[in-house]
Predict the structure.
Amino acid sequence: MNVIYALQSAASPALDSLMLWITRLGSEQVYIVLLILAFVVVDAAKGRSLALVFLASFYLNQVLKELFATQRPFLIDETVARSQAAIDSAPGNGFPSGHAQSSMTFWGLAAVYVGRRWFIVLAALVVLAVSLSRLYLGVHLPIDVIGGLLLGLLAVAVGVAVERLELKPTRPLKLVLGLVLPLLVHLLFPLENSGLLLGALAAFVVGPELAPHDTSGPLSGRLVLGVLAVALAFGTLAASSALLPEEVKRSALGSFTRYFLLALTGTALVPWFGRATGLTPRREAGSLAPSAKPGA
C-alpha cells in the first residue's frame, strides 16, 4: 500500500482524469479495435497470432483471479479509490492485474513483430503507463501489477516459441480443434468472460481458414475493410445485447456462440467481402498471404 500512497501524494483532479484516460487504453473496447485493425489492415498472419496469444493470456488471467481471489486495495483502505469510475474499471479479484497482463501481452508481442526501435519504446511506455495508472487509481496492489507483467511476458515468450516451431496442422484439423477445444474449455471451466474470450479465440482460428485474408494489397482497401470490421463488431455487439434474451446471453453455450459469431464477422465475413469486392487480393481457402507464417 505504501507505493499507492506515495503515488497518490501527487494526486490532483487533472492527474485523476489523465490516469483514467490511460487506464482505458487497457479496456476491452480498445483491444477489440486494435486486434481487428491488426488482422484486417496491418498483417493478417501476425494479427491472427497476436489475437490468439492475447485472448489465451486474458483467459488465463481470469482463471488465476478466481484461484487467488485477492482483495483490491480500495477494499482494504477505501480512501485510496480515486473515483467511482476507477472502481468501475476494476471488477472482480485483484491478482494478477488484467490491465498489466493484457497490455504486456499485446504490446510486447506487437513489438516483437514490428521490431522497430521507435515502436518498442512506444510499446514499453504504454505498458508502463497503464500499469502505473492501476496503482495510482487505487485498484491494484504492486504485487498484482508485477504478477500481471510477468505473466504477460510469459505469454509473449510462449507465443513466439510456438510460432518458431512452425507447426503445420491440416486445415480440417484447425477447423475442428479450433472450435471444439475452446468450447470444451469454456463449458468445463466457465468464467464470467470466458464466453467472450474463448468464443473470439475460436473465431480467430476458424475464420481465416474459411475466408483467407490477404493484407498485401493496397492500403486504401484494407482501411475501408478495417472501418467496416470495427463498425460491424460494435454494431453486432449492440444488436445482440438488445435482441437476445438474458437467459441466452448468460448461458454457457449461448455466450460462446454469441461471441464466436460476432468475431467471425471480422475474421471471415469481412475478408470474404474484401475478396468479393476486389478491395483485397483473391486467395484460395487454405492459402496464406505472402507475409504469413505457417505456425500462425
Residues 1-165 form one domain.
